[in-house]
């Protein structure tokens, strides 16, 4: 466990942890010495010359006092290292979240990540003070007592030395079984926690479908699995715990019998026997408390393992010698992509994109259209290097995105997604995330272009309106505009816009379409288009079907050509909220 603590603390932690370990070891050894000194104290007191006890008694008191001082320092050091652990772990987890490839964040892993950063860090925080100290003292105090026994009775010490590995082996075997069972139980508890959260979050859906009283299948299953894991832990873990307790009692009984027989044959005096018995009781107590601390230790070790595994995940590869894009053009050449997410996402290995090739010239507007699931958002993600293509190359300004440094790439590309996430804060803070140093003029321009200025005008607190967690206090359309203003304020030369299908009303839609068209004079625009107004005004349209570009050209070209686009156009042209759908087979 100590190795695991060093691992999760990383390069920042060794010094305070080293100091703490030194204090805890010192306190444990002094405790052992103090107990050992009880043997000469008792032996002298019960022997023929009780007045000789003073030097031993003084040594005992000095040791006990020194132990108390070190113990106090070790306890307070434990809390200090605990809070350092929490700070370092939160910082390292946040840094790691920034470095990990986006593809790593599957639904399951994101939930695990939030558990690790929340309850698990709190659990680990208490390890140095509440678990490490008893653990060290349950090892070092008995070891000191065994060494001390050699000074009082070599035979007893040898018996202890022979029995110690047996006790150790029994304890290890039972810990190994329990640790495996704990892992299964941890997973079951995590699953139940996720299902309860899902149940709470999805109350509106569940109530809408009248599924509140009869239960929620997935939650019931998770709770049953948790109960099964609990029963397994008790049934399979108990024999190990009982055997360890039995083995300690057996060793005690053996030593008692031997001590009495040595006393009867005259090779051990009564005072020494009594003093040794006191020491043995203390020794068995220490060993038993090691077993009691075992459950907490096992859980902490499992948690530290999981934290270490996340912190050691390899980061998204960055170029050794980053290159700078020459301009703001974009080029996809023979791009193929497949999601390699785990079975939990049910993705399989079907390619999502196949041989996608296109070029977006600087200062132009391209509309990407296609049925739902065709791969449009995936293309946007590859352009921003959220993931790397499985085949082919994505270039910005003639440079492969894999060769552009992360900061440079972020400065070149701005994205507006359909699923807008706002941080808990004011509208202004949310927009300014993109460019904290932006002046009032730039802020006002971004607000005017995105239509956010009208939203601000209608809200009593204007820019200072609190958006709530995730932007929950704003409507879908308002959130969308905050997110567009944020992307515009960043003023990256390439803007990817995943157009919302339903968030804007007609009046705003027309305004927004005009604003988007104006932007194309300044930026390379890729719009995942769902609205007729956007598609028609684009310089070129790319039609994506089942991961392949099947048609490309201007609106007029494509209508004249009479292909898929033209047939969609005919069927949908008059409907508001024009949306390309899969052709009926
Ligand atoms: N994170 C992911 N992991 C695995 N598969 C994914 C993931 N995201 C999308 N997919 C799959 O990739 C395919 C393309 O999805 P994508 O979101 O790119 O389509 P889209 O054209 O943007 O759809 P829509 O118009 O509905 O937003 C779909 O079959 C989808 O199920």
From TrEMBL:
Domain ABC transmembrane type-1 stretches: 20-291
Membrane topology: Multi-pass membrane protein
Subcellular location field: Cell membrane
Main localisation: membrane
Any Pfam family the entry gives: ABC_tran
Domain ABC transporter: 330-571
PROSITE patterns with a match to the protein in the record: ABC_TM1F, ABC_TRANSPORTER_1, ABC_TRANSPORTER_2
Keywords of the record: ATP-binding, Membrane, Nucleotide-binding, Transmembrane, Transmembrane helix
The keyword Transmembrane appears for this protein: yes
Transmembrane segments: 20-42, 54-82, 131-151, 157-175, 238-260
A GO MF label: ATP binding
Protein name: ABC transporter ATP-binding protein
Species in which this protein is naturally found: Streptomyces marokkonensis
């Amino acid at each position: 466990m100590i190795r695991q603590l060093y691992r999760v603390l990383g390069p920042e932690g060794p010094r305070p942890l080293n100091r703490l370990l030194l204090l805890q070891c010192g306190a444990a050894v002094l405790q052992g010495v103090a107990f050992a000194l009880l043997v000469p104290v008792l032996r002298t007191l019960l022997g023929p010359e009780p007045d000789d006890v003073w030097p031993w008694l003084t040594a005992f008191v000095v040791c006990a006092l020194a132990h108390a001082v070190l113990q106090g320092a070790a306890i307070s050091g434990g809390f200090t290292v605990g809070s350092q652990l929490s700070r370092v772990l939160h910082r390292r987890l946040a840094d790691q979240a920034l470095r990990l490839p986006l593809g790593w964040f599957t639904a399951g892993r994101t939930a695990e990540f939030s558990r690790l950063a929340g309850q698990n860090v709190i659990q680990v925080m208490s390890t140095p003070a509440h678990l490490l100290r008893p653990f060290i003292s349950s090892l070092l105090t008995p070891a000191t007592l065994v060494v001390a026994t050699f000074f009082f009775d070599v035979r007893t010490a040898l018996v202890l030395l022979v029995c110690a590995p047996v006790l150790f082996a029994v304890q290890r075997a039972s810990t190994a079984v329990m640790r495996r069972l704990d892992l299964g139980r941890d997973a079951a508890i995590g699953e139940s926690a996720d299902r309860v959260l899902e149940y709470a979050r999805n109350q509106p859906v569940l109530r809408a479908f009248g599924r509140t009283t009869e239960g929620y299948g997935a939650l019931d299953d998770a709770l049953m699995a948790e109960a099964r894991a609990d029963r397994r832990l008790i049934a399979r873990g108990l024999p190990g715990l009982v055997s360890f307790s039995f083995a300690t009692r057996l060793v005690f009984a053996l030593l008692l019998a031997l001590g009495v027989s040595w006393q009867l044959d005259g090779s051990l005096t009564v005072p020494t026997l009594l003093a040794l018995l006191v020491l043995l009781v203390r020794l068995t107590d220490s060993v038993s408390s090691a077993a009691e601390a075992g459950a907490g230790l096992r859980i902490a070790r499992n948690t530290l393992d999981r934290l270490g595994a996340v912190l050691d995940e390899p980061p998204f590869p960055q170029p050794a010698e980053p290159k700078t894009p020459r301009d703001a053009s974009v080029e996809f050449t023979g791009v193929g992509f497949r999601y390699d997410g785990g079975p939990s996402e049910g993705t399989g290995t079907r390619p999502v994109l196949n041989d996608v090739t296109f070029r977006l010239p600087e200062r132009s507007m391209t509309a990407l259209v296609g049925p739902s699931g065709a791969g449009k958002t995936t293309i946007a993600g590859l352009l921003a290097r959220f993931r790397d293509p499985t085949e082919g190359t994505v270039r910005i300004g003639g440079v492969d995105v894999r060769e552009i440094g992360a900061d440079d790439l972020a400065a070149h590309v701005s994205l507006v997604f359909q699923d807008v996430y706002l941080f808990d804060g004011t509208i202004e803070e949310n927009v300014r995330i993109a460019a904290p140093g932006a002046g009032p003029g730039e802020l006002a321009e971004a607000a005017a272009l995105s239509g956010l200025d009208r939203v601000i005008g209608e809200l009593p607190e204007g820019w200072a309106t609190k958006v709530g967690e995730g932007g929950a206090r704003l409507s879908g359309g308002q959130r969308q505009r905050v997110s567009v203003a944020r992307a515009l304020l960043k003023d990256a030369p390439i803007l990817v816009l995943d157009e919302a299908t339903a968030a804007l009303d007609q009046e705003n839609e027309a305004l927004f379409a005009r604003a988007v068209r104006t932007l194309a004079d300044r930026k390379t625009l890729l719009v995942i288009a769902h609205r007729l107004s956007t598609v028609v005004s684009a310089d070129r349209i790319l039609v994506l079907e089942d991961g392949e570009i099947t048609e490309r050209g201007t609106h007029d070209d494509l209508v004249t050509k009479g292909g898929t686009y033209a047939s969609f156009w005919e069927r949908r042209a008059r409907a508001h909220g024009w949306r390309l759908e899969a052709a009926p087979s």
